[in-house]
Amino acid sequence: MYFHYQRSYHGPIQAVILDWAGTTVDFGSLAPVAAFTRLFAAQGIDLNLDEARGPMGTEKREHIRRLCELPRIAAAWRELHGATPDEATIDRLYEEFVPIQVDAIRDSAQLIPRCREVVTALRGRGIRIGANTGYNREMLDALAAAADQQGYRPESSVCATEVPRGRPFPHMSLQNAIELEVENVQACIKVDDTTPGIEEGLNAGMWTIAVAISGNEVGLSQPDWETLSPSEQQQRRYAAYSRLRTSGVHYVIDSIADLLPYVELIERRLANGEQP
Question: Among 49, 68, 129, 242, which is most buried by a count of CB atoms within 10 Å?
Answer without folding.
Answer: 129
